[in-house]
Amino acid sequence: MIKGGLAGRIGRMAGDSGPERVLVAASFVNRVGNGLFNAASALYFTLVVGLPAVQVGAALTIAGVIGLGAGIPGGHLADRRGARVIMMLALAVQAVSMAALALVESWAALTIIATVDQIAAAVGGAAWGALVARVGGERPAMFRAKLRTFVNLGVVLGTVGAGPALAADTRGAYVTLILGNAASFALSAVLLLLLPRYPVPASPPRQRRRLVFADRPFLTFTALYGAMGLHYPVVSLLLPIWISEHTETPRWTVAALFAVNSALCVLMQSRIGSRIETPYDGGRAFRIAGLLFLVSCPMMALTAYAPVWAAAGLVLASIFVHSLAEVWESSAGFALGFGLAPDHAQGQYQGALGLGFNADQALAPAILTTVVLGLGTAGRLLLALFFATLGAAGPSLARWGMRTRPQPGVAAEATTR
Hints:
The protein is an all-alpha fold. The chain contains 18 helices and no strands. Helix 3 (about 55-70) packs antiparallel against helix 15 and helix 13 runs antiparallel to helix 17 (about 395-405). The radius of gyration is 21 Å and the shape is globular.
């Protein structure tokens, strides 16, 4: 009875319908595999395969840049052929390419396989966005918040699960993690078979093939959202370097900040994100995120001037505020990213949003390590103002976007002509 009650509660947390629970389960499994691989990939290719770190970085950069271009055409294909089918195909390709990484012995092989993987990832990401829009139902914000909660939880569990293999530090252990990620792609694809075949929404006649490129409000949001995405490497890259170079805090605080960040994102995503449903809600949430980043970044800078005991407390307090901002920002991204996209072109629009976000993520390490770290405390303050300025544009962007959406009556008339 207890087990049934627990299973029921988990089921209700995962979604209100069968399709919602299926997509949550598929995404969760996939992200557990991602957590396994992300924890081991760099060490495997450098320490086990023996490739120089520069070559590994170059291979992944080339793959990432080439993959950027696949999101929009992949999303358009998902809109025309069905998001579920395209996402399953992308997952199958990633399962094969990930397993092939276990056979890599040269830089050329790594570059080719990683490029195939990144192209499939871009296509799958756009199709995933379109599929989320189909499955979300009447309360899409609630579903997307729950989905992100389980996605974050999956990454955490995968990263923790990689610990024993990293401790063993053998080729077999690393290969097990890589194959575990490959299996997660395959299992996710199989789970998607349980979803219904959603009809492909009809597009208006004489519509441009790349509709998103004519949508200035959405393209503006894509640029702002990608720029705001600088906050992710602030936690994963900038703050650890800052702690080690500018403070005397114990190194355990680096592990603690990751734990606090992950835990807060898991615990708060549904609570906050479920209330942010419309693009107008998203605009206000984007502004709140910017204001919270305006607080967290100076708090991080102050750690360089505080005693050891106070610096450790400031690190944890700043990551608490930063994590809350992350939840507000991701919720804003869902509300605006899906809310401004027409139903018949969700895949194309999510592909464009992914293109902007991933392009900025590719530039982020260079910006953060040269400009922000190079300017020290002033760099932190400039970063805070940068985030706040981006966030302040959220409400007006939402109003602009909604003014330029086709009115339901006009859209209906266009489809009947």
